[in-house]
Design goal:
Layout: E1 10-13, E2 19-21, E3 26-34, E4 37-43, E5 48-53, E6 55-57, E7 64-65, E8 70-74, E9 84-91, E10 95-97
Antiparallel strand pairs: 1-9, 2-8, 3-4, 3-7, 4-5, 5-9, 6-8, 9-10
C-alpha cells in the first residue's frame, strides 16, 4: 500500500555535521523532531515536497528558502554508525517520487 511502512527515498553518504542544502526554492513546512528524528520538509512549486533527515534544522516552518540554501546540519542515526542523509520526495498526499529524478536529467534515446 502506498501509505504503508517502507523506505521511500534515497540515502546519501555524508559526514556528521555537514551542511544540508535545499534541493529547490520553496517554503519550509516542518522543521523539528518527527518520530524522534530531526527533520526538515520543504514544499516546492508544483506541489512537490522534499524531506530531509536526520537534519538539525537551521530554518523554521513558514520560512522561504532558496535552492542551495543551508537548511540544517546532518546528524547520525539513519544509517547506523555511518552518517547519511535520507532524502525523500512526494507529490500530493501519497504519490512518492524518486528524489534523484528532481536533480538528474532524464535521458531519452532518439530514433
Amino acid at each position: 500500500m502506498k501509505w504503508g511502512r517502507g523506505h521511500r527515498g534515497v540515502d546519501l553518504a555524508m559526514q556528521e555535521g555537514q551542511p544540508v542544502m535545499a534541493a529547490g526554492d520553496g517554503v519550509v513546512l516542518y522543521a523539528g523532531r518527527l518520530a524522534d528524528r530531526p527533520t526538515v520538509s520543504i514544499e516546492h512549486a508544483g506541489g512537490i515536497r522534499t524531506t530531509y533527515e536526520p537534519v538539525e534544522p537551521a530554518v523554521a516552518a513558514g520560512q522561504s528558502v532558496a535552492r542551495g540554501q543551508v537548511i540544517g546540519t546532518l546528524e547520525t542515526g539513519h544509517c547506523g554508525a555511518n552518517a547519511c542523509l535520507h532524502w525523500g520526495a512526494k507529490k500530493g498526499p501519497d504519490d512518492y517520487l524518486n528524489p534523484l529524478r528532481l536533480v538528474r536529467p532524464l535521458i531519452r534515446l532518439l530514433e
